[in-house]
Amino acid sequence: MGLLTPTETGPLQQVTTLRLGIAGSESNVAIGLRRLGAPATWIGRVGGDELGDLVVRELRAEDVTVVAIRDTAPTGLMLKTRRTDAITTVRYYRAASAGSHLCPADVDEDTIRSAAVLHVTGITPALGDGPAAAVRKAVEIARAAGVTVSLDLNYRSALWDTAAASAALRELVKRSDVVFAGEHEAALVVDGSTPQHLAANLAQLGPRQAVLKRGPAGCVAVIDQAPYQQQALTVRAVDPVGAGDAFVAGYLAELLAGKPPAERLATAAATGAFAVTVPGDWEGLPRRDELDLLTATDPVIR
């Protein structure tokens, strides 16, 4: 989507300047992977408008391979405002947008079959029947080709109701190898009295790797039937949006690199922490040689 962000904090009607950029969970993950040295391809539908041009240009500038279908419908738009220093409000304008027209014919089968990981989110199937069918097709192609399927539940209450989301996400979890979720998202799919129980119950549906993102509380996971826990890094949060996508990018980059679970989670915690330290959904994502900066004792690097 295109992204509009006021350059000032306060009510939108008092803001004098808006910054234009791009945003989107899947594109955030793709950029995060590229910055960590992993290849990434983004498949999607954007409008044949200047916002669509911006999305394609920014992704290509980050060295992401782009498979973008251009649509006569407009590119979706996201408006992110800072009502106070502690409260961020996000609104989406994407009804009848190009992204909502995604369909199974848009799925590039050769790209998916040749991938190491297919990453999808719960946002796309919430956009409509076509996008939901496209996700199902992509997942089935990946499974048939032995490609690891990664799913971030990413529940958006503005897009669909709880009952519809619960049923659709549960089916996607069953067909995934790696699942990421917040606690409230996991609770849409499984029962569990603690984060560890939620992760374990997600894993029982089929995924070998179930990871619960808990923000400042770190994360818990069940990976190959073994429990894991990772503390979050202490940082000064400037913009919390995009932290979950950064976490996913860090985890998947280390999965692709063949790193053990503890290393995957440690890098995920670091990339998630990086993302919140600067404004923007993806701008603060780190490169691999920057991962140790958050634990540096000297604030000036010479």
From TrEMBL:
Annotated TM spans: none
Domain of life from the UniProt record: Bacteria
GO terms for MF: kinase activity
SUPFAM superfamilies associated with the record: Ribokinase-like
Pfam families noted in UniProt: PfkB
Limits of the Carbohydrate kinase PfkB domain: 10-285
Keyword Cell wall biogenesis/degradation listed: no
Entry keyword Transferase: yes
Keyword annotations of the record: Kinase, Transferase
InterPro entries for this protein: Carb_kinase_PfkB-like, Carboh/pur_kinase_PfkB_CS, PfkB_dom, Ribokinase-like
Similarity field: Belongs to the carbohydrate kinase PfkB family.
Protein name (database record): Sugar kinase
Source organism: Streptacidiphilus fuscans
